[in-house]
Amino acid sequence: MNAPVNSGEFHIAGDPAALESWPVWPSTAFDYAALLAQAETSLARREQAYPEWIRKGLIAGDAAEADIAAWRLLVAEWRWIVREEGELPPPASIHARRAAVDLSIERIEAEARRRHSAELADQAALLHGLRWHLARTDGLIPRVHRMAAITRLLRADAANFIERKAA
Q: Would you give the distance in Å from CA 96 to the centre of its chain?
């Protein structure tokens, strides 16, 4: 996996009639299965580590609960997108989901400053992919939800066409 691409804009020099810029995205943004796996792993790590962190005073209990709740929503969101399972999280939870991913990115970057590894780079790339989707919204709804819904409709139409053709 590659390191994330900065989510700024790339400017093209030359002909003013040419496209001057376009948005870029993290290299992992469209690896939906990997994004789901990262969300599930992030949740599992927190559920395992936070009780001990709370006992040691490394994190407040309410902060741990809020972070775990946000990661549960992220897992539910990506299971809906990838596996067509469950329900989407409430739109108003987007701020908590963004904050959870931002905190995770901060932690990964701090760890990477202490020790660099391919595993940390991969995790960071996936977290940037999750965050990228949370930043592209229509109101409080990530656009990836609409794209997943369209994909579901196309799959259903294709299945209906195949059934009619076979009959």
A: 13
DSSP string covering 9-74: EEEPPS-TTS--EEE---TTTT-HHHHHHHHHHHHHHHHHHHHHHHHHTSS-HHHHHHHHHHHHHH
Q: Is the pLDDT of residue 68 over 80?
A: yes
pTM given for the model: 0.81
pLDDT for the residue 23: 61
Distance in angstroms (rounded) separating the CA atoms of residues 57 and 104: 19
Domain count along the chain: 1
Residues ≥6 apart with Cβ < 8 Å to 96: 66, 69, 70, 73
Q: Are strands 21-23 and 137-138 parallel, antiparallel or unpaired?
A: unpaired
Using a pLDDT cut of 90, give the percent of the chain over it.
72
Q: Is 144 inside any structural domain?
A: yes
Q: Each residue of 123-151: pLDDT tens digit?
A: 999 999 999 999 999 999 999 999 999 99
Whether 4 is covered by a domain: the verdict is no
Output DSSP code: residue 3.
Answer: P
pLDDT of residue 9: 40
**Is there a domain that residue 41 lies in?**
yes
Domain around 48 = 32-166
61 inside domain: yes
